[in-house]
Amino acid sequence: MRKMGIRKGWIFLLALLMAVAGSGCGSEGMTSSAEVEKSSLVSAEPGSAVGESQPVVTALLYGSQLPAEENGVLTKIREVTGIDFQPLVVEGGAYTEKYNTMAAAGILPDIFSNNTMKAARELVENGVVMQLDSLLEEYGQEIIANRGDQFADCAAMIDGKLYGIPTMNFSRGNALMVRKDWLDHLGMEIPTTLEEFYEVAKAFTYNDPNQNGKDDTVAIAAAMSFSTTLSFLYGIYGVPYQQQCVVDGRVVPYYMHPKYLEAVQFIRKLYEEGLIEPDLLTIPNMSCLEKLWNGVYGFYYGDPTGTTNNWYPGRYTEDPLPVMTYTWIEGPDGSAGSPLAVDLTFLSINAKAKHPDAAMKLLNFLCSEEGNRLAFAGVQGVHWDWDEDGKVVYLDKYADSSEQRNDGVYCYWPMLRYEGFSDQLKTEITQYGYEIANEHNCPYAYLSEIPKAEDYVSFNADEMFSALLMTSGDMKSEYEAYIKDYLNNGGTEWIEEATDMYNAQ
After folding, report:
1. What is the pTM of this model?
2. Domain interval for residue 127
């Protein structure tokens, strides 16, 4: 009951903070009222009511699915480490809002993440985070052994001292899933060129690829709200969707790439011919995924782990289950894929943490082979076990990814072990997807920080895309008008600043 109460305290506190933030009060007032709440939340020794002495360690973590407040994985982590781990898992899109609210109130948890050099410097200058070198040396041997060679390039390495631990400064990227069973039904080969892709897209939409005698398929999954799904269509033309690129020596946003309009024209062609999700401008993320799981789409561009691993077979409703593989679509200039982004995310420990040694011990455990296996797969004998071939098999109801997440599987990994247990959980098809993602990706101009001009640029790229997709006028002239508007409303300053930053890196 004690642990449940602490978790509910987190939720109550966040609700309180949101209410205060929405009232327009300054951060000074927020801090004053919130510190009282903080005192009751994390300062009291845990277990006092039942004679326990475990140190409390709080953390704010990303999550794609929220676990039950009390679950098997969390219980096991506490049991093995002797640390009362109190994580608050929020969905990825809500993380920044939660973090900013708590930071403004001065009640950041013991462990939290950031992902820019600017943020790291500000945290250090304001005394929010502690230097980690000595803690790592004493309690972080697994972390040092597994990712010590990444410390020098970490965004939180400042003046030769480490204030954050890199979590994932690599990216495996996304890949284009194609229904192999549909190709077989139609007697078609896996497409790799633009022409082949277009012909397969027509057949997937109009030639009854699922052989049920119904007009119930659409070739390409796409959703504006799920930007990943669209990125490969731009990548075919070398346009790094939602990133920046170098054009004539200047760093410009992707929609000023010389082939941007050509990419939009191709998407419009797919749209007009019914080969792409017809509601791509308005369909919610989850609705797009539900269509995928219900056998509507023949192509889906996204993270291979979800598509052919975590969602398979539990999310898919077809009988027999879909047969998938991965491919790339090479454009006129040999371009393919989407930007393979650099991830600068790092984990810091709050300078006010009551038990910084316990926080480091916890992170070190999660980076160990045992902790990594527990975080990714759950408890052996409960969630999974080895089969006779030495492969992981999920047990009973935990074959369903939703049941896994609900009981804490894949929910508590603030530390990722490089070449860890997660790789053993991937199918051969999933691994092949990552190979394709790494071999076929669209280059872009990496910026370590966001230009300050971003704060006052008045431009909506999605609005422009929607207008161009639906226009009955001259697309080129409308596009040029949008770009002129962008340049006149902060875009020129953004380009100048971004170019200077890029050249100075």
Report:
1. 0.70
2. 2-170+344-418
